[in-house]
Amino acid sequence: MANDFDRILDECIDRLNHGETIDACLTDYPEQAKQLEPLLRAMIQTEAAYSFTPSVNAKRAARQRFYAALEKHEQPSFWQRIFARRLVWATLASVFVIAIVGYFALRATVFTGEPPSLTIPGSAADGNFAFLVSDEVNALADFSNLYVTVSKVGVLQTGTSEKWVEFVPEVKEFDLTLLPGAKTQELWRGNIPEGNYSKVVMYVSGVQGTLKESGQTIEIKLPSNKLQIDASFQVSSGNVTSFTYDLTVVKAGNAQGGGKYLLKPQVGESGASQTPRPGNGKNKVPLQKTP
Hints:
This protein is 30% helix and 33% strand. By secondary structure, the chain is of the alpha+beta class. It folds into 2 domains: 1-113, no CATH class; 117-276. It is globular.
């Protein structure tokens, strides 16, 4: 549950940084709204504090005072030294308080040092890694079709130094209504560096579906244009690691308000499995979804 809340908090921070409102995030996550609201408001207030820029006149006045002090070369008096120390301690205390309150803002601004990325240039039929998608039913029955467009996929390699390994799927668009339950569709197969991995991110450029009841085509809500899950798996040269990314469509809101649909990752149904890698590279090993 903690991992889910951290993921939701990260998504809301991303959305606020892209111009969305706090109310929009709270509406999408009503169960977590009570915990999210104070954290998000603290982030907004801290960003406002950090955005201060002194005016040109204030800068000019400060320079003049500085040059005047240099010309005097006078030793400060005892009371001046005492008062200066009090100001220093007051400043340090203020900075400390701002640092605590600004923790969540700093996660989205100061601490945005992402690990370096490695882009895999192409695919390979006998590669050591395959990426598949599937769907947990939920509100899928409301749609006659539901097309998801994926621009790229990133997996986070861990170890002595972290790095993102990214690739562009061969199959960039798929109909989620054709993949209920245990059905899967392979989007990409190729070679990625051997080692341990801890996170999978799917960058989605569009989700569009047609409702069965009305025949209306609608856009599906997708926070931050990406979906991410924490999942540990290993890639080695002797095996084919297949990762199934399970998606689900849920309906939010009440019937009177018309409701809306959200596309979310299904962490519990997603995961990796391994099969022996074929020696000749000609026979494609069938990949099964991890239960």
